[in-house]
Automatic annotation (TrEMBL):
It holds the Pfam family Trypsin. It comes from Mytilus galloprovincialis. Residues 1-15 form the signal peptide. Residues 25-251 form the Peptidase S1 domain. GO terms for biological process: proteolysis. Keywords: Disulfide bond, Signal. This is Peptidase S1 domain-containing protein. The keyword RNA-binding does not apply.
Length: 259
């Protein structure tokens, strides 16, 4: 029997500021190649290893823009330090489907804050050259309507390269897991306002997609961007995601032009 993870979709995030960096897709299983064509690996240059290494997930918005969590890029705004890899499946094996792109602009939400919580934990990354989109390898995510849609009770999935078991190394192969979106009141009850939190390093910035009807067709829609959860991931505790529908005006707005 598959374990169902609990998910909270929030705009204004409540969180204890004492955060540690962990990464985990609990009870995840390997995704099939190209199963999540909107999934991106955000990689950062390591001076120690003289190579780019995966630090966060991200999501394809269109040929020139990527969506991720603001906390993934706040530590260093230097665009040359980052590599975007779309079409990635196994971080250590080149399949020929990978598309590497550099960044030209990093735009964090202007009301993002990591002190006292991770409010507005979302950022748009502008690429220096276009991605080549295709329906099965690299494809833009379907965005939700501009609304307060909560996706409560919908069939949802998360994906990323986070740990599937505590204290193990990050997996090379993209992982996935089924999820269940819960209400805000349930979320607050399960999380509380205090307690040590973790930011999902490895999974952070990656997609939460939920299956909904779009123009009469069942479609995976980008519901959330991975943000944080409780340390040690106790049974029944939810993970928290930035609710994408809340940020549609900002994404399409004058400061982050995608159209």
């Amino acid at each position: 029997m598959k374990t169902i993870l609990f998910i909270c979709l929030l705009a204004a995030v409540f969180a204890d500021p004492r955060a540690t960096f962990l990464s985990r897709i609990v009870n995840g299983q390997e995704a099939e190649p190209n199963e999540f064509p909107w999934q991106v690996s955000l990689q950062y240059w390591s001076e120690a290893n003289l190579r780019y290494s995966h630090i966060c997930g991200a999501v394809v918005l269109n040929e020139t823009h990527i969506l991720t969590a603001a906390h993934c890029v706040e530590h260093d705004p230097t665009v040359s330090k980052y590599d975007i890899v779309a079409g990635e499946h196994n971080l250590n094996i080149q399949s020929g489907n990978e598309q590497h792109r550099r960044l030209s602009v990093i735009t964090m939400h202007d009301e993002y804050t990591s002190s006292g919580g991770y409010n507005n934990d979302i950022a748009v990354l502008t690429l220096s050259s276009n991605l080549m989109l295709s329906p099965t390898i690299v494809e833009k995510a379907t965005l939700p309507e501009e609304s307060t849609q909560t996706f409560t009770g919908k069939t949802c999935q998360i994906s990323g390269w986070g740990r599937t078991v505590a204290n193990e190394a990050l997996p090379d192969v993209l992982q996935k897991a089924n999820t269940s979106v819960i209400t805000h009141s349930d979320c607050r009850g399960r999380l509380g306002i205090t307690g040590l939190l973790y930011l999902n390093r490895g999974d952070s910035g990656g997609p939460l997609v939920c299956k909904v009807e779009v123009d009469g067709k069942s479609t995976w829609v980008l519901a959330g961007v991975t943000s944080w959860g409780l340390a040690d991931c106790p049974v029944g505790s939810p993970s928290v995601y930035a609710r994408v529908s809340t940020y549609i005006p900002w994404i399409w707005g004058s400061n982050v032009i995608l159209r």
